[in-house]
């Protein structure tokens, strides 16, 4: 399944999982945002950690999203983005 289709089918569940794993503001960027995803693409999701969020929370979220969606998920926070592309990604990313 294309990640864009998985996203379309599970938006509410994605938002619920993000909240359960101590993060907020889930956004999509990359190939799905630009309509260029394929069956082999991953789903690029950007989240904001809340105070106290750990790497275990984020790792658990990534696993939970992959299990729900059946596609590979690249989960990042704004601080994980490379400096040279951070502003562009933050400007373009669209809410889940």
Describe the structure.
- There is one protein chain.
- By secondary structure, the protein is of the alpha+beta class.
- It has 4 helices and 4 strands.
- The longest helix is centred in the middle third of the chain and has 15 residues, at 55-69.
- The chain is globular and about 35 Å long.
- It starts with a helix and ends with a strand.
- The model has no long low-confidence stretch (mean pLDDT 97).
Record keyword descriptors for this entry:
globular, 4 helices, single chain, 96 residues, alpha+beta, 4-stranded mixed β-sheet, Beta Polymerase, domain 2
Topology readout:
Blueprint: H1 3-9, H2 11-20, E1 23-29, E2 43-49, H3 55-69, E3 73-76, H4 83-92, E4 94-95
Helix pairs in contact: 2-3
Write a brief structural summary.
With 96 residues, the protein is an alpha+beta fold. Helix content is 44%, strand content 21%.
Structural class: alpha+beta
How big is the Rg? Answer: 12 Å
SSE order, one letter for each helix or strand: HHEEHEHE
Largest sheet: spatial strand order = 3-2-1-4
Number of strands: 4
CATH topology: Beta Polymerase, domain 2
Total number of distinct structural domains:
1
CATH superfamily: Beta Polymerase, domain 2
Q: Which segments are poorly predicted (pLDDT under 50) over 5 or more consecutive residues? A: none
What's the helical proportion of residues?
A: 40-55%
Calculate the terminal CA-CA distance, rounded to whole Å.
Answer: 18 Å
Main sheet makeup: 4 strands, mixed
Report the CATH architecture.
Answer: 2-Layer Sandwich
């Amino acid at each position: 399944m294309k990640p864009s289709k998985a996203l379309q089918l599970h938006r509410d569940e994605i938002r619920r999982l993000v909240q359960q794993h101590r993060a907020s503001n889930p956004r999509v960027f990359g190939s799905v945002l630009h309509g260029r995803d394929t069956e082999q693409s991953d789903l690029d999701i950007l989240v904001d950690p809340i105070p106290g969020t750990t790497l275990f929370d984020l790792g658990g979220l990534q696993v939970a999203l992959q299990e729900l969606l059946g596609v590979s998920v690249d989960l990042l926070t704004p601080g994980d983005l490379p400096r040279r592309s951070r502003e562009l990604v933050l400007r373009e990313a669209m809410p889940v």
